[in-house]
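Could you join me in thinking about how sequence relates to backbone shape in a protein? To get us started, please write out a protein record for me. Would you write everything just below, so we can both look at the same thing?
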Amino acid sequence: MAAVNAGEVQTPFEPKYDRASEVKDFDDTKTGVKGLVDAGISEVPRIFHQPPDTVGETSVLSAIQFSIPVIDLQGVKEDPSTHKEIVKQVLNASHEWGFFQIINHGIPVSVLEEMKVRAHRFYELDDELKKQFYTRDTSKKVVYNSNFDLFISPAANWRDTVYCDMAPDPPKPEELPEPFRGMIVEYTDRMMSLGHLLFELISESLGLNPDHLVKIDCAKGLGHHFHYYPACPQPELTIGAGKHADSCFLTVLLQDHIGGLQVLYENQWINVPPIPGALVVNIGDLLQLISNDRLVSVKHRVLANSVGPRISVASFFSTYFNPNPRLYGPIKELLSSDNPPKYRETTVLEFKNHYYNKGLDGSSALLHFRI
């Protein structure tokens, strides 16, 4: 009989846990986490169990001590003094937090609300209708699945996602899921306009010409992730989205009223409270790289919840799926003898491949590109 190591507990009657097999079985259903909830499960399957130190990593400081900056864009195009003040606020928030919320951003609340309704409507479709979009082929314009890193991550996240790649080469209307047709085109146009404004403000905040970041294609690509976080029977055992930073240039997030988004600030998790009509903006890894750490891409996560479903729409500015041969490194105008480059040059495709192969393991993809 084999010896038992000290500290091990022998459980001869406990069925063997074959993670790879259970992950495959889950993926083969093509119904995601929502399918588990619809089936009436009362316990979270083991593939979703997070390590204890991940779930209860640090306490959340009260909003009285720290709160995510909120920037009012009212008058940004009309009043020079207001514009100057907003540029300063954008720099402070992007350097200090890597995150901020924006109000009076120009996208009507009715459009934001309708986009959430359409996202919810997709997930309420009949399973057979949704399954036609379920794939792990990221070259497709529309990708629906649960956990892009399902087969490499130590624990799965409690969420499903449908991704639509909308710029610079959008899918044909008939390629889009029915709930998104028409509406997603308007949302993309409005998000593109907002993205150009944000990149202009960020360019100015770095002391560059307003069109600098747009000219180097930071706003060329845009894709939307429609995340669905079902109500969880045991939210203390899992997480909606594990600790990660975004790999893009910039993310603009529309979240619903449920909340759960948290930002890691000074080693504490800080809530990003939903504000009606507001959008959340965060700096991505590629923007930290080309700013030579002047702007920061900050780790964040989403808690699982017991009241869902939580809906969010994350709009990522990057040419992930339209590979751009352009090399990106620290912007030369920002460098000096006192501020030498901290990163080597890379392409968006190389960065994306490294990020995807690494998965949401909590580490920074930027470390791989440090000089």
